[in-house]
Amino acid sequence: MKIKYYKNAVKALLIMSNYQDLCNEILKIDSSIRYVGVADHLGSLIATAYRRGLVPLSSREETERYTMQAIQRTGAIHGGPKVGRLQYVIGKYENLVRATVPVTSDRQDKFYLMLSFDLGSNPVSIIEKQVMPEIEKNRKWL
């Protein structure tokens, strides 16, 4: 019984390490990316990365609360067969831009990529031309 628990714990740590690596890689994509987080389908943050030297506008608790709310809202959006599957949601605030990107892994696990950008950036272009290809490149282990 202990061996099975140990193997599952090691597997979970490796997966969490992969999510942290994904956050770090996406953060490097563009200098206007302030924050990258990966959350499970319930809105619990699994991994996060902030731009070096950044003073976050929100506390850890506020970020966690926002993540849960954003995922609840995103989960309530159903495009249907005519409109298609939701690709991402972007919200512009007075001091930053936030985006939520739903991702389904090859194993059908669902999680969300949470991003924030500086004002004046082009989050649509960054997400479509750089973030989505990075997700596709890593989809096998997600």
Per CATH, the architecture is 2-Layer Sandwich
What's the level 1 CATH class?
Answer: Alpha Beta
Shape: globular
Number of domains: 1
Which parts are unreliable, with pLDDT below 50 for 5 consecutive residues or more?
A: 5-14
The fraction of residues assigned to DSSP E strands is 15-25%
Sequence of strands across the biggest β-sheet: 2-1-5-4-3
Mean pLDDT rating? 86
Count the E strands.
5
Order of helices and strands: HEEHHEEEH
Helix content: 40-55%
> Could you state the CATH homologous superfamily?
Dynein light chain 2a, cytoplasmic
CATH fold assignment:
Beta-Lactamase
Q: Structural class of the helices, strands and pairings?
A: alpha+beta
Radius of gyration: 16 Å
Give the tags.
single chain; 142 residues; alpha+beta; Beta-Lactamase; 44% helix; 24% strand
Describe the structure.
With 142 residues, the chain is an alpha+beta fold. The chain has a single domain, classed as Beta-Lactamase, CATH 3.30.450. The chain is built from four helices and five strands. The protein has a five-stranded antiparallel sheet, sandwiched between helices. The protein is globular. 20% of the residues are buried.
Outline the fold blueprint.
Layout: H1 2-27, E1 33-40, E2 45-50, H2 60-75, H3 80-83, E3 89-92, E4 97-104, E5 110-117, H4 123-138
Antiparallel strand pairs: 1-2, 1-5, 3-4, 4-5
Short précis:
The protein has 142 residues and is α+β, with helices and mostly antiparallel strands. It contains four helices and five strands. The chain has one domain (2-138): Beta-Lactamase (2-Layer Sandwich), CATH 3.30.450.30.
